[in-house]
Every structure is written in C-alpha cells, then in structure tokens.
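step 4 of 6: structure.
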Amino acid sequence: MDEARIKEALGKIEDPVDNNTLKANDAIRHIGVEDDKVTLLIGMRDPDDQKAKQKLRRELASVIKRELGFKGVRVEFEPLKKQGSVLERDVRYIGIASGKGGVGKSTVAANLALALQRIGKRVGIIDADIYGSNIPVILDMPIELPGADENERIRPFEKHGIEVSSTEFFIKEDKPVMWRGPMLSKMLNHFFYDIGWSEDVEYLIVDLPPGTGDVAIDIQKYVPSCKMVIVTTPHPSASSVALKAGLAARELDHDILGVVENMSYLDHGDERLKIFGEGGGDAVAQKLGVDVLQRIPVGQPKSGHHSLFGAEEEIGVLYLGLANKLIKSL
Ligand SMILES: Nc1ncnc2c1ncn2[C@@H]1O[C@H](COP(=O)(O)OP(=O)(O)OP(=O)(O)O)[C@@H](O)[C@H]1O
Ligand SMILES: [Mg+2]
C-alpha cells in the first residue's frame, strides 16, 4: 500500500524544533494519495516557527518526489498533541456508522446520547459528519462560534445535559463542505485535542459521516479503542452498504458492538407493516458476527419534538434498552 510506504519513508525525517523523527513524534497525521499527488498533514512541535516549517516542507517534498517518485505534494501542518486532552482520560467511545446516508445515524446518535444521560451517565457527542452535520439541528442548538475556557480549550456547548461539538460550529454558514483528507483530520484533531470536554465525561458518541472512508480511518489514529455501532434500515440497499462500513471498521480493528435496525417497521393499528422491507439488520449482524441490538420503528416523537423521543414513549424506551445494552458490553 502506498500510504504505508510513504509513512515509512517520511518517518525518518526530523522535526527541526526538537530533532525527534516524525515517527518518534507520531507526527504523520494523514497521508492521502490521488493519482501521482500526495497530501500530508504533519504534526509539528512549533508550526509558528517559519524557518523550521520551511525546512521540514523541503525535506518532505524531497522524499515524496525524489525518493518515491510522486509528481506533487501538498503539506499542511498542525501542532503536535497537547497534554491533558480527553484522550488521556478514561472515556468510552462509541462510533455510529452506517455506510449509507439518511438511514438515521444522527437521530440514533442523539437519542442514544439522551438515553445514556437519562440513565445518569455523563455524555458528549462529537458530530464528525463533515459533509452534512446535523446534530445541532436535531438538538435545536444555535450555530455559534464556541468560546474558550481558562486552559484555552474550546468549550463544548451543552444541551439536554449533553456536551456537544460539531463541525457545524466551525464552518461558515451554509457553505458546502468539500474538505477532504487533511481537513477532515484537522477537524478530528479539534474534537480530541482542542475541546475542553468536562472532566467527568464518561461516554463520547461519535456521529460518523456516511461512507467507509477518511474519517473512519482517521478516527482509528486518535481512538484505537473506539467501538462501533452500525446503523442500517431493513432494506438491502442500506444493509449492503452498512455491511461494507462494518467490514471496513473491522479491518481497522475496531470492535463492533452490534447493529441497530432503524425504520424497522411501522405499527398501524394491529398491523406491523414492513414498509422498508425486512432482514437488513439481521443480514448485517450475521455477516459481522454480532447481534441486532435494537430495532427502532418508524415514528415521530409524541412530544412534538422533531427528533428526540421522551423517556416514557415506546421508542424512548427502546433507546433506553439500547443504552443499557451498550453500557453492559462496554
Ligand atoms: N425511526 C425513524 N422514524 C421516522 N423518521 C426517522 C427515523 N429515523 C430517522 N428518521 C428521519 O430520517 C431522516 C434522516 O435521519 P438522520 O439525519 O438521522 O440520518 P443520517 O443517517 O444521520 O443521515 P446523513 O447521512 O445525512 O447524516 C431525518 O429526517 C429523520 O428525522
Ligand atoms: Mg447524519
């Protein structure tokens, strides 16, 4: 694989500020290869040191072009890992993935967070869906630039007792996000190193973008212990893609906690209608060797809220059941 070869070759280059190799500093944050071009995100001890940055840039370019024979290279830098980040604490990470878009990932992520909170857990949500983040909409949060705390960390917003950080808070309003590779990684860096999550946060739920690509791979670098919940609908068009996401997660050594089949059925009088077909959840679970943790029917919250279910509503109870199962298996 190109990435591994590039990583190996770049690893021996030294950061001019501390003279550690990039490998020793674990500074190679992202490698993207497209045709004959390479994009890199490199952690630097002091990205404000322009001279050091130039030197490093030259050395990176020399290895990529002369040694490895690529035609072009684009490099971005970011500061190396800060001390005291949430990654150094005992937090459980639950990644919500689906492969296909629109199957209810964010709805499940938000209601699961709410259920955990109702059980008495301290929860945060990372809305890492760079292409269509909508956790703030689901939780009815205004889009504002976050402030900083006394340690110069970004303060997460809080809603319904849940701490929230989202790409939405950092991007310009209504701009389609077309960031790729390094930018995605930069955003994740924000979530894990720059956000001042409360000391007592026990669970961080990560709403992943659809697809099996960059973010799922990058998240591996930050949180190797991130466990996955795969969301699918009963329909084969969703479940076949969800399975791919599951297999990709597995390939990255993420544990898969199980499958949530969303929009599973619709209760209409005495009848249970399978309006989106059936079998998708079971198919994915079986192929991944895990259980279907919950089946969530099609439904609207009775409270009048557009997405969040009350604790006493049928679907709210199903989410409590899901939360309890996850707590047990973590
Ligand atoms: N069980 C359900 N019953 C009825 N509507 C649902 C259900 N789950 C989700 N929805 C609705 O389906 C739409 C898509 O849900 P959501 O945004 O959570 O999906 P997503 O997988 O996060 O999508 P995206 O890929 O865009 O991030 C929303 O309008 C949501 O309210
Ligand atoms: Mg979503």
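step 5 of 6: annotate
 - Residues 105-106, 129, 132, 134, 207 surround magnesium ion (ligand 2) (CB under 6 Å).
 - The longest helix spans residues 50-67.
step 6 of 6: archive
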